[in-house]
Write a sequence for this structure.
């Protein structure tokens, strides 16, 4: 082969990833445009009011709680010079819940870096996992460069408090103590795994806030990078993880013991140039298994210029007869999640419950959060929330609303400084109108009023759209409900 041919081959090999990435960008851009125009059903990120990452599912009764980390939006980054940076800006952890897998209720920040008084950094609220044990909820959190801490609460909503006032684990010789996952086996023994790029584990005492064993370093698991997720299915133990970057996928290993040895089994989701980061969370819920992970698809609706502004997605996951996992295609390439039951519109529905609400924002009532750690409240527990930053043409979509034999009236609790027209439509953002309601000035944004209107031709099961137009001043939404 000539030198010229050698150079051409090398250039082709170097350019191939760039060409593949460019093709993926063009394809995903078209797909996202079709999804936004509702021309095609697409498995889009679960949440739109905030950028989210590092999903940690927890099933309590008939409710699936999902804890996530939180990539700050540019306006929430204190240093204006950093707002266009591609780096990580992470200050708190968020909570969401669902009973049907498609309509999610936001609960805001459940904890932040401020809840660890011994930390020294104002950034780095990385991947957590929350587990239930003997009626209490334990939130295990990495504080980059300062080990892994733990918070405890009597409720998944919080408030969470630090019972130790120091790290649970801190190997001071390195900065590898990140991404904890905690699992209690059927015999009552509890294990914590963590680490990047090495995998560490230790057994916890029954108090869940102290170590029963020393720290063990596992032999390297093929393709392991970080973000372990330890769980058991039937007789097999699984360790899912973010695979070697970049690009990054979701790998997994299997074992007959919660402490290994582990055999690498390949991928839950293969690495792809469409996604430079991923992080698994896996749970069984109402007879199905779900895998949660992260991507940049929400950010890509606006821009393919890279920033660490991630979004959480989910897909149903299945097992082969031998216990191995059937590989899941990339998030955008699987069908949207199946709704597990219809939404009842005849009881109070929080405004921050939605299947889609792109462009809107949410906040806890009475709590101002500037994005600066020093200004954040300590973990507050469950608080009422509102939807704000409502702009012309935006809407809230709810999937599978069961109106039964027919709704007669609609009421919406809101505050407003001017007028805002709320149009209720079925099945599409431009679908049949069943009601219109005008929000009028309530005195202040902190003063809420219940607005009521008549409803026509609303029966059976439909997607519901609350569409906003004619906005003359800011408004906030609290809750809504239909009446028969």
């Amino acid at each position: 082969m000539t030198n010229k041919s050698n150079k051409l081959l090398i250039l082709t090999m170097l350019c191939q990833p760039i060409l593949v990435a460019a093709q993926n960008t063009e394809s995903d851009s078209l797909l996202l445009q079709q999804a936004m125009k509702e021309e095609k059903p697409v498995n889009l990120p679960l949440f739109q009011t905030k950028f989210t990452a590092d999903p940690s599912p927890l099933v309590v009764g008939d409710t699936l709680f999902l804890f996530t980390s939180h990539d700050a939006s540019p306006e929430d980054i204190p240093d204006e010079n950093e707002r266009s940076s591609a780096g990580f800006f992470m200050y708190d952890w968020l909570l969401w819940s669902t009973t049907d897998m498609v309509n999610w209720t936001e609960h805001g920040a459940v904890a932040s870096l401020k809840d660890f008084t011994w930390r020294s950094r104002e950034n780095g609220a990385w991947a957590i996992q929350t587990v239930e044990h003997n009626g209490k909820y334990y939130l295990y959190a990495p504080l980059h460069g300062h080990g892994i801490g733990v918070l405890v609460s009597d409720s998944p909503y919080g408030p969470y408090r630090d019972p130790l006032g120091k790290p649970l684990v801190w190997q001071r010789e390195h900065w590898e103590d990140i991404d904890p996952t905690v699992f209690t086996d059927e015999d009552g023994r509890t294990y914590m795994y963590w680490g990047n790029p090495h995998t560490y584990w230790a057994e916890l005492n029954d108090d869940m806030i102290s170590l029963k064993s020393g720290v063990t370093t596992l032999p390297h698991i093929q393709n392991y990078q970080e973000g372990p997720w330890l769980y058991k299915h039937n007789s097999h133990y699984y360790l899912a993880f973010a695979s070697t970057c970049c690009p990054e996928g979701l790998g997994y290993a299997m074992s007959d013991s919660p402490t290994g040895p582990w055999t690498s089994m390949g991928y839950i989701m293969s690495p792809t140039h469409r996604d430079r980061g991923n992080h698994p969370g896996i749970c069984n819920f109402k007879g199905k298994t779900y895998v949660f992970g992260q991507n940049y698809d929400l950010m890509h609706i606006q821009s393919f210029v890279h920033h660490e502004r991630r979004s959480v997605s989910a897909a149903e996951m299945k097992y082969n007869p031998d216990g191995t996992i059937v590989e899941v295609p990339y998030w955008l390439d699987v069908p949207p999640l199946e709704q597990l039951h219809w939404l009842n519109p005849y009881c109070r529905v929080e405004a921050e419950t939605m299947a889609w609400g792109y462009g809107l924002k949410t906040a806890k009532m009475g709590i101002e959060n500037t994005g600066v750690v020093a200004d954040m409240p300590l973990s507050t527990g469950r608080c009422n929330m509102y939807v704000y930053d409502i702009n012309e043409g935006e809407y809230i979509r709810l999937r599978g609303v069961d109106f039964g034999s027919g709704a007669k009236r609609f009421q919406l609790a809101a505050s407003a400084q001017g007028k805002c027209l709320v149009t209720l439509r079925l099945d599409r953002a431009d679908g049949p109108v069943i009601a219109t309601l005008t929000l009028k000035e309530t005195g202040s944004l902190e003063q809420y009023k219940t607005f009521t209107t008549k409803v026509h031709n609303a029966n059976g099961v439909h997607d519901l759209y609350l569409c906003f137009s004619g906005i003359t001043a800011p408004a906030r939404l609290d809750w809504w409900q239909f009446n028969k």
Remarks:
- The longest strand covers residues 51-60.
- Residues 3-36 form the longest helix (34 residues).
- The mean pLDDT is 94.
- DSSP finds two helices and 29 strands in the chain.
